[in-house]
């Protein structure tokens, strides 16, 4: 009988040992930069109640209508989280995080799940890092969120991007705008896609996000929200732009930018890169002043962003940026005979206690094969041990790069290694 052949699910990829150092390096950068901005990490479960995600993101969005992985068990309806803003807000409300005082400045790193058609830069399990400021409607919060997002890319050396900016207004501005949009679209509605027709009454702004070919001509000349912002939304947007200017952060105004979730109010932004191909959004976010209340909390303004980590990696590859050093080990014990192997096994901990990484052969291979393995592991030093060395109490310490060897006691070897 043929052996079964298992693979990971389509669009869900393993991060293999050759790849994981760059993930760790990226995570380290995110933790460091978030700390500099005084954000605190939050970790929420991978699964949430379906109802939370539907309510939070919006029934008519692509994410909820087509892309969620959902299942039932008993009376519970589970969904693999497609994003983290709604879950973080759920956690904020559930645990009364407002009582900690001040604005909550939270960040996260982790896997998300969307049942999209996989392609370059688009997976079904992908990773985001992101941040949310909950409890402030000050444009300073919007700009700090954008600055933190940009800082991570800048630090890595990705600077070839465009920050697209819009204001999608507050409820009052949006009502006026939706009316204008309906008036504009109504005469041609029967020529538009079924999805757009469905969205027309309940949420015509979603139509601006349509990917359907037949809708594009109508979307192009649609009225823009910036002409319908009330004074308050306009003032807020003006300050966001002014503060971005003050920080020297370039942006392009994009009046059609509506983003893929229904929770956005006022500021909306997206960071795109020409190095990514068709899935060109590195990151995106905006303000969501009504979501906390929608999810059962007190009215609380908030703003945040999330960034795709796989897309950041693709941009790094395109730009020849390596996030992590080549793999290496400080010390490789090369042994001949059982007594030498035992010596190596019992002296590995001493090297590790000195703060160095150390390994030995696990396969009983010849000395020559072990030296080759030490090379493959990119070892900095080899400690070579045979019966003579054991009898003498002195071992060969080989500097692998310089091809130099010293015969030393183990104590001398340790102090020499500790000094390098
Ligand atoms: P989003 O625009 O849906 O926003 O996702 C943010 C980023 O995640 C995208 O710009 C992209 O880089 C990455 N991404 C999304 N889907 C995929 C996928 N299928 N494969 C690979 N990468 C993907 C949000 O998720 C909001 N929660 C952002 C936010 C936070 N708004 C306010 N606070």
Automatic annotation (TrEMBL):
<feature type="domain" description="Aminoacyl-transfer RNA synthetases class-II family profile">
    <location>
        <begin position="24"/>
        <end position="315"/>
    </location>
</feature>
<dbReference type="InterPro" id="IPR004154">
    <property type="entry name" value="Anticodon-bd"/>
</dbReference>
<comment type="subunit">
    <text>Homodimer.</text>
</comment>
<keyword id="KW-0648">Protein biosynthesis</keyword>
<dbReference type="InterPro" id="IPR045864">
    <property type="entry name" value="aa-tRNA-synth_II/BPL/LPL"/>
</dbReference>
<keyword id="KW-0963">Cytoplasm</keyword>
<dbReference type="GO" id="GO:0005737">
    <property type="term" value="C:cytoplasm"/>
</dbReference>
<feature type="binding site">
    <location>
        <position position="132"/>
    </location>
    <ligand>
        <name>L-histidine</name>
    </ligand>
</feature>
<keyword id="KW-0547">Nucleotide-binding</keyword>
<dbReference type="InterPro" id="IPR015807">
    <property type="entry name" value="His-tRNA-ligase"/>
</dbReference>
<feature type="binding site">
    <location>
        <position position="259"/>
    </location>
    <ligand>
        <name>L-histidine</name>
    </ligand>
</feature>
<keyword id="KW-0030">Aminoacyl-tRNA synthetase</keyword>
<dbReference type="InterPro" id="IPR041715">
    <property type="entry name" value="HisRS-like_core"/>
</dbReference>
<dbReference type="GO" id="GO:0006427">
    <property type="term" value="P:histidyl-tRNA aminoacylation"/>
</dbReference>
<dbReference type="InterPro" id="IPR036621">
    <property type="entry name" value="Anticodon-bd_dom_sf"/>
</dbReference>
<dbReference type="InterPro" id="IPR004516">
    <property type="entry name" value="HisRS/HisZ"/>
</dbReference>
<dbReference type="GO" id="GO:0005524">
    <property type="term" value="F:ATP binding"/>
</dbReference>
<comment type="similarity">
    <text>Belongs to the class-II aminoacyl-tRNA synthetase family.</text>
</comment>
<keyword id="KW-0436">Ligase</keyword>
<feature type="binding site">
    <location>
        <position position="114"/>
    </location>
    <ligand>
        <name>L-histidine</name>
    </ligand>
</feature>
<keyword id="KW-0067">ATP-binding</keyword>
<feature type="binding site">
    <location>
        <begin position="263"/>
        <end position="264"/>
    </location>
    <ligand>
        <name>L-histidine</name>
    </ligand>
</feature>
<dbReference type="Pfam" id="PF13393">
    <property type="entry name" value="tRNA-synt_His"/>
</dbReference>
<dbReference type="InterPro" id="IPR006195">
    <property type="entry name" value="aa-tRNA-synth_II"/>
</dbReference>
<dbReference type="InterPro" id="IPR033656">
    <property type="entry name" value="HisRS_anticodon"/>
</dbReference>
<dbReference type="Pfam" id="PF03129">
    <property type="entry name" value="HGTP_anticodon"/>
</dbReference>
<dbReference type="GO" id="GO:0004821">
    <property type="term" value="F:histidine-tRNA ligase activity"/>
</dbReference>
<protein>
    <recommendedName>
        <fullName>Histidine--tRNA ligase</fullName>
        <ecNumber>6.1.1.21</ecNumber>
    </recommendedName>
</protein>
<feature type="binding site">
    <location>
        <begin position="83"/>
        <end position="85"/>
    </location>
    <ligand>
        <name>L-histidine</name>
    </ligand>
</feature>
<feature type="binding site">
    <location>
        <position position="128"/>
    </location>
    <ligand>
        <name>L-histidine</name>
    </ligand>
</feature>
